[in-house]
Amino acid sequence: MIGNRVMAVGDVHGQYDKLKKLMRKIKFDPAQDKLIFLGDLIDRGPESLQCFDYVMHLQKQHPESVIYLMGNHEREMLDYYDALAKTKDELDVRLLNRTSQWLVYGGDKTLPQLQKLGAKALQNRLDYARNLPLYYRMGDFYFCHAGVKPGVPLDQQQEKDLIWIRSEFYEGYQGKETVVVGHTPIQNLQHMFEGITWDMYPVIRDNHIILCDTGSYMENGRLSCIDVITKYVWQA
């Protein structure tokens, strides 16, 4: 049984140097620890493929100790490639590239890296991403990328909420389980909550929510990892 630390990592968004620095700090021990990546390893930052590959290989090496959850950016990447597979000619491809939500929200940083891969290497990564779990439960903790729909049992949550929901969850969740999420940088939530010291650390809400995205890709942003048991935080 895992008896040491249960650690959640916020959105990495292509910040490979920060990811490596954070991993050196936490000194992950797969024999004792659980390490949960809350999704959005890719996009916005310059080294998305390196971040994706690092966590993919770590998870494959330690499948009982490392969890990589689906984020909305991984889903958008898959949706893009699903649409690309249906294009008939170069005109269709250009239209897709002009209208893709993924490219607008940071996929433009990831796509050139993926395009340099061979067909088999690309497919291997897409297959891995397609099978990412949407959530992970451990004791009284529930980990997902974005949050849960208030009033809906945790075992009945829908994908769109688990990877996209925002204010309805932050303001309306009243469950007894602690839900640990990334998705929205805390820098973008200051207007929503009162009585919080905004010190660039993960935010622990009274309604059993832990917000772990500290804006790794933003100016002066950080990549954070929190032990949800002790509430100890490591940052890069």
Structure, explained:
With 236 residues, the chain is α/β, with parallel strands linked by helices. Helices cover 37% and strands 15% of the residues. It has helices spanning 16-26, 48-61, 72-85, 90-99, 101-115, 119-130, 159-164, 167-172; strands at residues 6-9, 34-37, 66-68, 135-138, 141-144, 178-181, 203-205, 209-211, 224-227, 233-235. The protein has a five-stranded mixed sheet, covered by helices on one side. The chain is globular and about 55 Å long.
**What percentage of residues falls in helices of 4 or more residues?**
25-40%
- Give the termini separation: 29 Å
Structural class, judged by helices and strands? alpha/beta
Q: Average pLDDT value?
A: 95
Number of strands: 10
> Could you say which overall geometry the principal axes of the C-alpha atoms support?
globular
Unreliable residue runs: none
Determine the number of helices (DSSP H or I, runs of at least 4 residues).
8
Q: Determine the strand fraction and express it as a percent band.
A: 15-25%
Order of helices and strands: EHEHEHHHHEEHHEEEEE
Radius of gyration: 18 Å
What secondary-structure arrangement, pairings included, does this model have?
Blueprint: E1 6-9, H1 16-26, E2 34-37, H2 48-61, E3 66-68, H3 72-85, H4 90-99, H5 101-115, H6 119-130, E4 135-138, E5 141-144, H7 159-164, H8 167-172, E6 178-181, E7 203-205, E8 209-211, E9 224-227, E10 233-235
Key terms for this structure?
236 residues, alpha/beta, five-stranded mixed sheet
Structure summary:
The protein has 8 helices and 10 strands. The chain has 236 residues and is α/β, with parallel strands linked by helices.
